[in-house]
Amino acid sequence: MNTKRDFLTREIDKQVETVTLQMKHLHYEISVLMPLIKNLEEKEKDDVSKKLTFEGSALLQALVSLKS
């Protein structure tokens, strides 16, 4: 039984590491996008902001649900 739990723990650790790396990459991508977004027209900025806010909110909700 302990071996099964150890395997599960290792798998979870691998997935957490993968997600963490993806989040770091997203942070980098957003920092690259910001100067480009600042040069857009207001309507285009709003559209990009809405899309990123929606997706960001979904990610935050998923992370918050881990605690409950």
TrEMBL record:
Domain of life: Bacteria
Protein name: Uncharacterized protein
Organism of this sequence: Cytobacillus purgationiresistens
